[in-house]
């Protein structure tokens, strides 16, 4: 069987970076670089040699650690061709729908614009994980700084179509607040009520709530559920389109 190691690294106040190691080739990818120090410390602790960095989007809390990190841990930097001017210098750049190799494995690049235009996700089918940063998040989705609600909804639908056993590796620890909001639009969802309790107990112990399985997001994340009759009833939008319901959920979250 093909095996990977996935390590979550807390950075800054509420960001996550991830290390993905392919045990066969020994290649090590870092997804996003909020700051260099905790990532360098984790690499040293594990004795891993960084080989590549995959950047999801141009916001400083996802890229600002690149220069300091690669000074001591040289690595190929990979990002979106469409957003290359706003990213650190890239060694390879890809468009939506393109793939590249990681060891003997394929990495699929998916445009997930909405939070920013040019935000990408990295799907590694063999590792059953996708790095979504500030697009699909645990019980939430990123705020729309550059894109439209329709764009974000399109992006989330692409992620929702991945296999249910895919691990969603998102960029921030926002889940407790997301749960409080989700319960305002989907108050009677038993899976959500139970997940909200799990989140509170994890946070009380200082444990991360990221990553999370796509199957759980599909059951509980209101931003993936605009077609749900109970959510539509709560919002008073029984006959609206999914895009209209999604837009209303996002609007309410912005004011929550
Ligand atoms: Zn961001
Ligand atoms: Fe962010």
Question: Can you summarize this structure?
Answer:
The chain has 256 residues and is α/β, with parallel strands linked by helices. The chain has helices at residues 37-46, 60-63, 66-72, 149-160, 175-185, 190-204, 214-220, 229-235, 242-254, and strands spanning 4-11, 15-22, 28-31, 52-54, 76-80, 92-94, 99-102, 105-111, 120-124, 129-133, 136-137, 140-141, 167-170, 212-213.
Outline the structure in words.
- By secondary structure, the chain is α/β, with parallel strands linked by helices.
- The protein contains nine helices and 14 strands.
- A six-stranded mixed sheet has the order 1-2-3-4-5-6, with helices on one face. Strands 7-8-9-10-13-14 form a six-stranded mixed sheet.
- It is globular.
- The mean pLDDT is 98.
- The structure holds zinc ion (ZN) and fe (iii) ion.
